Amino acid sequence: MLVERDQEIARLNRLLFEDAREGSRLAVISGAVTSGKTALLHTVADTAGGRGVRVLPAVASASEQKFPYAVLEQLYQGMPAHLQHSRPRPGLEALRNPHGPIEAELPLLQDFHRTLDELTGDAPLLIAIDDVQFADLPSLRCLAYGIRRCRSEALSVVVSRGALTGPAATALDELLHEPKVCHVRLAPLTVTGVSTLLTQELGTEEAGGHAAAYHEMTGGNLLLLRGLLDDRFSRLTRGPLDPGPGTDAPVAGELFRQAALSCVYRGGPAHRRVAHGVALLGDATSVPLLSRLIEVEERLVRQSVGLLTEVGILHGGRFRSDAVRTVLQDDLELHELGPLHLRAARLLYEEGADPIDVARHLLSHEAPGPVEEWISQALCDAAVHAIAADRRELAMNCLQMADRYSTDEREALQLQATMVQAMWPFNPLSQMRRLQALAGPAGSGLLPAPQTIPVVIGLLGLGRMGEAAAALEQVSRAADEHPGTDLDTALRAIRLVLSSTYPDHPELRPFLDQEECDGPWDIGPLSPDQSPESPQLTAFRALRTVLSRGVDECAVRAVERVLETVRLSDRTMLTVHAALQTLVYADRHATATSWCDRLIEETSERGAKALLAYFCVLRAQIALRVGRLRDTVRYAERALEELPARGWGVTVGMPLGMLINAHTAMGNHDAAAELLARPVPEEMYRNRFGLHYLYARARHQLATGRQHAALTDFRACGEKMAAWGLDSPATLTWRLGAAETWLTLGGQERAARLAEEQLELAGESSSRTRGAALRVLAATRPLNERIALLQQAVGVLQASGGWYEMARALADLAEAHKQLGDLDTSRLMTRRALRLADSCGAEELSRSLQRTPARSALSEATRTGEDTAAFSELSDAESRVAALAASGYTNREIAAKLYITISTVEQHLTRVYRKINISQRRELPASLDFDVAYTA
Length: 936
Hints:
This protein is 66% helix and 4% strand. Helix 23 (449-462) runs antiparallel to helix 24 (465-481), helix 26 runs antiparallel to helix 27 and helix 29 (589-606) runs antiparallel to helix 30. Among the domains are: 5-186, 3-Layer(aba) Sandwich (Rossmann fold), CATH 3.40.50.300; 587-732, Serine Threonine Protein Phosphatase 5, Tetratricopeptide repeat (Alpha Horseshoe), CATH 1.25.40; 748-851, Alpha Horseshoe (Serine Threonine Protein Phosphatase 5, Tetratricopeptide repeat), CATH 1.25.40.10; 871-923, Arc Repressor Mutant, subunit A. It is built from 48 helices and 7 strands. It is elongated and about 140 Å long. The protein starts with a helix and ends in a 20-residue tail after the last helix. It is mainly α. The longest helix is centred in the middle third of the chain and has 18 residues, at 589-606. The chain has a 5-stranded parallel sheet with strand order 2-3-4-1-5, with helices on both faces. It has a two-stranded antiparallel ribbon with strand order 6-7.
């Protein structure tokens, strides 16, 4: 027994059996349900029996409270036989006349008093009554009469009691509040008490370390603690011989749940109903709401909540353990559960509670009944909150249930549109049929304009341009009626989307907005009367600007602000995507990569497969533009894994275009041909994403010797881009592709003219496009002019990060030096080109460079591992300098790259030459580590 209980037993024993006293003594053991009152009562009774004291036990029961003298009958049954037979049975006598006057029971009272005197005359007597609050009224009167009149010191009475309720409360209160009554109040165990119990029960000091966790789950309630311990022993009995660490930690099992139910049921029906109500609502902080839900008086609800808290079931209005709440919910009958959930939902809705809490009850309400108008609205509100909280499954459940309850056609259509918008980022394929079903209502005006906008975007992606135009006409009319609203802003954004992405459809042309992007960019502080432009318009206008006019620094800064301030969500995903596309087309590769990687991680964690696929394609586009071909394939293939081609609709040209382009550059022509053999929507060729596919097809045809087909596709790209107002260097370099094609056909002049046009469009900035144009232009010039242009191209490409194009320029430069007879420089350029080609994944280019025979004997020996010992003597600093020198960098350039002096570079090189036994830098082998030189 615990220390606290031992102290109480000793106190009761002194009071009842040892202290000097006059007359009978009465002790009352009280406490919450299952606090150990009965156990303490039995211990006192057993102690009395061990001392030779006669014990008359009785147990009062709520089910027998209406039977007169039920408790007194039990006491008589414990008396000697001669007293049982010599006295009348009061219960039977009273039952013959249960409504007789109180005076009629006077003989019974006197008889009981004489019996007590006779019993205490022979030996000490202890009357022990458990749960005396359930005793019947006549028995209580007899007890009170006998105890007051019995002056014998040999009589002791000990009772356990709970809350006083019912008709016997007054009589019991009168009996238990005598001046000499000793009251023992049992409180739940403290953490220290729990620790002592665990140590005793589990037999290890370590077990006490879990006391706080056990106390947290039980509040120190002995019955609940016993349940947890019994569950533990049950697990160990069923489990392995060595259960391993952590087996002393509390885990709620079936025995714990049954103990919790016992705690609740012992409190009576009203107590049980309150517990069920708290389990349904989730907390008991609002007593009026709980009272209305279970239809119990607030006074009784407060009383029961207090008892549930005292007994360790509740803490701060909530269940200490979710297992208790679950078992109480399961304890409700099915025919009770549905109506209670519906009533809870209605009460919460009327009080303006969290819509998701309201929906939780509605979704649990399965009982049939009349449709109530508020239910559909409540579910819609909950769906909106669930979508904002990224609880996609809950949102869909709410919307589907609202759809079943909806009786209005327009409301049902809105629900369908909301479902499409909620689920599209996660699984567009599952929503295509629903989207197509909404096309007609959207075009006829049955669907409200705000819900029509996502339908328009979806129809555009499916290539259903006529239906999208009809729906867009409805949005346009609504926006005209409400100028300056969010709807008007959304319409302007859609027009920008059309002009930058879907510009080639007769029915959509009336909605194109070529003027939105033509205004000057204001990046300075706003005047007091000037409102900031919405992030949505900013992003789409910036994208249109870069696609139509090339890189614009103000547009770039604007979308960087958008990305910093706008959080990715269903409503902002197009805005964020447009801002990121702007950075990609503007060749802001480092910034775009950082944002892409962050968004890929975020959407992957959320399970938003469609969004993840869109950002993977952008990541592939970045990799292609910087010449990282393996990364291009990896990200583009992942995009098509997350979202199959059918889910891309007419935008499938983007992932396919990236893959085809990369495989062609790598020399994987069979893989590119297989991708081109896949069927694609015809409408794909009428949007910007189709341009990327067309351009990639042209590159494949050029690489596989179909020059005229390639030239046709390159020209088609150029014509579309010019007609759509997207003919800028940022979009696609179709002129360079056509120029390379003319070079293979012997059309030097046409190739030169196209390259010069591209160079003029690229401007003077150090861009990837400018570097590529210089490389192509060099191929049209005489050999003596070619080297200067190629050197310029290499410098521009190195500064802009176009690694694949730089590898091609270096290869051309190596060939030019070879033709001029400068074999040493040719070998040096070949080494640099080879290392870059290997780094980029340009396998075909790498193979062509490896066929070049110009290698020094020392270089070849080093490559085959015949002279590795000399290189192991190089320090890290010497290796870095040697690598850059072998790549063709001057001493000044090496010093700038490594942040050292030119003199230090010269000293490092001198030591390198000596260690590897060479005399000049052109003899440096190609096997040196060039990664330090080319880090994109």
